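Response to reviewer comment R2.3. The reviewers asked that we include at least one raw input/output pair. We reproduce the pair for endopeptidase La here without editing.
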Amino acid sequence: MNNFRVENLTIPTELPMIALKNMVLLPKVVIPLTVQRSNSVGALESAIANDRLVFFATQKNIEDDVHRDDIYNVGTIGRIVSVFKLPDGSSKADVEGIVRAKITKVISETPFFKVTTEPYWLRAHNTLEEKALLRRVVDLFKQVTETRSYPSTAPEFVYMLSQLKDPEQVISLVVANINLETADQQKILEINDISETLKALSVVLTRELDIIEAEKSVVKETKKQINKMQKELFLREQMKSIEKELGVDDEKDDIDSLKVKIKAAGMPKTVEEKAAKELNRLAKMPSMNPESSYLRTYLDWLVEVPWSKKTKEKINLKEAEKILNKDHYGLPKVKERILEYLAVQKQVGKLKGPILCFAGPPGTGKTSIGQSIARALGRKFIRVSLGGLRDEAEIRGHRRTYVGALPGRIIQSIHNVKIKNPVFMLDEIDKIGIDFRGDPSSALLEALDPEQNHSFSDHYLEVPFDLSEVMFITTANNLETIPPALRDRLEIIEFPGYSEDEKLHIAKKFLMSKLMDSHGLKSSVLTVADLAISDIIRNHTREAGVRELERQIASVIRKVTKQLVESKSKKKIILTRTDIPKYLGPIKYSHQKGEDKDEVGVVTGLGWTPVGGEVFSIEATKMPGKGRLILTGQLGNVMKESAQAALSYARARAARHGVKED
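Raw output as returned:
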């Protein structure tokens, strides 16, 4: 076994090892140590029986039992100064660090760790830079200790530190007397150059000073906030005393005012009892209690919701038909079904029938016809768009336990119109989404079911609200995406889209006058021929509704307006079909016609699109092969099946027409 000397002490290279948790032993300092683990106790007893020398290494992961891979290679050889055994089998010891060392080999792990080490000398240069760095470290340590109350950092200790000539001892004492992270201590232990160690320690001490300054700023700001709150509290109490002396009690007035509003709100008995109970809580609650503002907001909602206020409707079928015809051209089946619905409601008085769902392509007048129904009934109209809605709380509201909680959209909308029987349109019901926050369509089931909506439960109100007098109308573009349970509660009214003749009539009767007014033009200044409008419909739009038609006509009118402003002419402009390409450019959509004469291998097909039917030619050609059917183009299943059926038909009658089977 080899030895090496440190000052007057001979140290063997083979030593027992103790793994340290959350601490690092540095040379030339004495630290107290509690030894509990069985392998550490064994290493301690072996050292006491021999030369009292132990190699101390720090454990990387304190949660695990000690293993070879869990120990830093660089540690410190220490001498056991004193030992005191405890009744539970553990020991307390004072340990003095002697010299840095490095593990070269692990001899054994049981019953305790025994390792071979070699000295890890700290190189000194004795240069002016090294002395300056040492002075800098002492100065930074002094600044840290002046702002932190460390137990062993009295002015005498700092003075003693400044008088030491051994840089390694200064480094060890500084590290041992400030609260550094274990990783930082180990990093300093592993640097084997005095100058580099002093530089690393300077960085650590500078960071510690920055943390201290940040803490001071936080403490100062906290004290400032506390003082401000105490001042506000004092002033509020003073204000209360003054108001009491003057006989003013606004809080009591608020409670009395709410009590009157609750009586006048026309609430059902159960709701009124709930409101009275919450009002009593508010009256007993200190005004500084944060919950008082939430409770006050809740009571304001309860008294402002229209529990009994409603519009007195007068259903006049002739007037309703007149309004529908005035506002919308065409759609005879849609109007007939709406009038039937109103007739039954007038006869019964209170209709518990299905909820109407207007289904059709965009721009066919679904939303606007809902407004016309409201006009015909003399009710207020509400429209809520459900497109992209994914949170159930948007329908049912948030519970009062959440900060900033509010009722759902249904109750909010009824609260805003201040009556309980509006015409309520739920727009784009087919575009509701589902995610982790719930399924809004399930929340709508209760609102749209005539058997349940007389006691609709909003999470915020926590009391039932009667929706049975609300006339719900929904709209959708695609019925396939509506959940089956919700669709079962809806009566579907199809909006098939407009024919070209209907679009022409709508453009002349509605769109032209609306767009002329919005652009500041009069009929005496501009006239658009019917054929010109027809060309816009056929060649520049392809839709079931009239939104794109409105945009194209608006584009023409803007260009005409610009022309009039630039020329300052008062002459009337008449647009014919030959003028349209000048304003809208070349034809955007072409329409294929069926073949005039029959041709071999060519047949006319009829395809379905969301904007109407299309005629197109289907052409077949023959080629050498095994008789397989190859289809090209983006064909739907129906067209593919039709082509297969045609082939089967031809093969079944091949012999009759003299066609040979391959």
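The domain at 3-119 is CATH 2.30.130.40 (Archaeosine Trna-guanine Transglycosylase; Chain: A, domain 4). The mean pLDDT is 82. Further pairs are available on request from the corresponding author.
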